[in-house]
Amino acid sequence: MNAVYWGLTALSIMGHGDALDRDEMVDFVMSCWDEEAGAFSAHPDHDAHLLSTLSAIQILLMQNALNRVDIDRVLKFILSLQTPSGVFAGDAFWETDTRFVYCAVNALSLLGKLDALDIEKTVAYIRRCRNFDGGFGHVAGAESHASQVFVCVAALAILDRLDEVDQPTLCWWLSERQRPNGGLNGRPEKLEDVCYSFWVLSALAILDKLAWIDSSKLEAFILSVQDTESGGIADRPGDMPDVFHMIFGLAGLSLLGYPGLVDLDPGVLHACEHHRKFGSQEGVEGFAEKDFVICIGIAVGLRSSHHATTDESNTGVQAVECHYVAMIVSYIPTIC
What we know:
Elements: H1 2-13, H2 22-31, E1 33-34, E2 39-40, H3 50-62, H4 71-80, H5 98-110, H6 119-128, H7 146-158, H8 167-175, H9 196-206, H10 215-224, H11 243-255, E3 263-265, E4 299-301, H12 315-335
Antiparallel strand pairs: 1-2, 3-4
């Protein structure tokens, strides 16, 4: 389920969201419905999970097919996973993590059901996961990690509670994630990885601090990990590309304002230039076929004409964009 979502989102960022067969995608998503749990699994006949359920909602929303979902049952499933401490489990086996807090908040927001959430209890748990360096861990007392920073900051943004973030300290910690080669790591003393181009940048963008890193060096790093022969983006130069790193590399480039890509709003609260807040009670009602939403934790709106492809600065991704599209399209049928 997640791989289909990553592929669809990567294509959509490049303006090719229609490259995959809509009916096949929707049929695959619905084949992952767990009737007993009232939620979605990662693959048919697997157990329902909160992460897969969020991805399913995101895919169906982008495909204007959310009417296929039993929203009341999904709501019951999500709320059943919140513990007395405020953290969420991912499934019936009760592994807890701030990732699942974010999944719950984002899913409820997309469904227009945030009013059903105990917001104060949820925020209180996120607060407990905040560390002296301004970052957040996967559970209370755990080491700060860039991906956990994203899920906590994004959840707080959706809940309109960014007052809980120690912004100067956190943004300093995030800016320290940049390595000499321009790439970003997830925590001190670790190697750079292209996926942190999104996790770090999105948090900085939500807090309006993108200028705290060297964007030109990061852009050069992301472009350096492309496979110009077969298409795709890898974690580091010379490694094998995959859809996971491709989506987060492209999302990072878009947040940096790279030409030819879709604009991303890392705050998740609205689709650029369009429509209602995700958290509003109207939920997804009234979504038109042309409405375009991507939610990795982000809302998006297409730039007009996707920018002119004759711009010299656009050659980095445009030169291999056709390879990216072909690579993703070749991956997805094996998943569906």
